[in-house]
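Give me the 3D structure for Chromate transporter.
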Amino acid sequence: MSDQEKEEVKPIDLSANVEDAESGAAVAKFQEDDNIAENDVSAPVEEEDIPWSTRMWEVFTTFWPLGFVAFGGPQAHIAILRDHLVVQRKWMDEDAFTELFAIGQGLPGPTSTQLVISTALSRAGPLGGLLAFFLWNLPGLIVLTTCGVLIANFIDPNDPPFYLVGLPPAAVSLVFKAMYGFGAKLDKLGMILATISACVAILINGDYVIKPTSSQYVFPSMLAIGGLITYLDSKRSNPLGTYKAPSKGWDAKSDITMKRIGIPLWVGFCIFLVWVIVLVMTIILVDVVKIENDYLKIFEVMWRIGSIIFGGGQVVLPMLQGEVVPQWMTKDQFFQGLGLAQSMPGPLFNFSSYLGAVYKAVPGALIAWLGLFGPGIILIFAVVPFWARLRHIYAFKCILNGVNSTAIGLVGAACVILWEQAVLNSADAIVFVFTGVLVAVFNFSAPVSVISGGVLGAILCNDAANLGQIPFAEL
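Predicted structure for Chromate transporter (475 residues):
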């Protein structure tokens, strides 16, 4: 690889993501192998491909254990995947991994899950991608569905038990940390776009005239406008934003990875149409035809939100909250589930299974889970065949800058909205600060931090020490 090509691949700084990773074991291993990876990041050249059955078995044995240890959020997930797939197993070289990571960043949906799917897809084809998806998410799906059913049936939503009191403020502290990590990487124009989108989202959530449900139209419009602004800015002689050239991309005709994927362009286009048709039809059936079916409504809400989420799990929180509270559950139930989801392995999108379970038991959990994950899964299969071509288009990269920056602003809005609803008294604030310091300063993993905050909240609650219980509204 020439020095020029290395420089072109540089924009996506995986090492920066790793520095923010919350999974200590993954980070330690990543740093230990970093020097080795710099000198040997190429997968072995295979003149004859490995049998498909062998590659499917590799996918199973690789992703089954990862589903149980993938704590720490997207940054930690990227570190874990790079360590296992590039450094240890050498499924692909550094450039291919970076390309696949970029695909997830440029599409709506859960970025780390899309990276799981695309890496397995590049190894064993479409069935390999689907198998990796289920293995990656299965532990979190089972636990959160079970918790949702139990909380809905056995816990009074107006009087949560003491051991759940500290989970909401503990979970919100992780959202603040995510916002800091995202915002630190924005350029000036990106920060402006993020600020505007955050202010608009906060306004929608707190205005007497504007309905909170208008977010389903306003948020996609803001994402589109953000992309248009950065595209126009990139055309200026002295742009305000920072734009980097697209990387080399894959050779779709000769690259063994593209051959393994085995999805022709016309099939990718058909898959894309499936996503569009499902999105349009569900909206028409629920909002125009007015079909009264709770399960259809669950699917429509989740599919619509999953189709416009850029930036990963934290961005989805304000949209989900606006749709499910108080229509499906109480505010306390929402935040209790958020705390549980933050402490589970796998993506935060698994939170959808908890929401569906609280509302409509196990069937609701499965429909909500498939609805929220569905768009991201379909789009990753649809876009991979086109990616070798799209990566050559400079304008496409510039548009993604604006879309991602605007999406990050929604995380900032979530910080404000979730703080106001989860931190109600001094005891909650103490839990918030305590958990935030553990995860941001001392690099504790998300599960340990959330559980520690929950324990502190239980100690301070009115059923135990009864400290700091005066509501802020009375101060």
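The CA atoms of residues 116 and 307 lie 19 Å apart. Let me know if you want a second pass.
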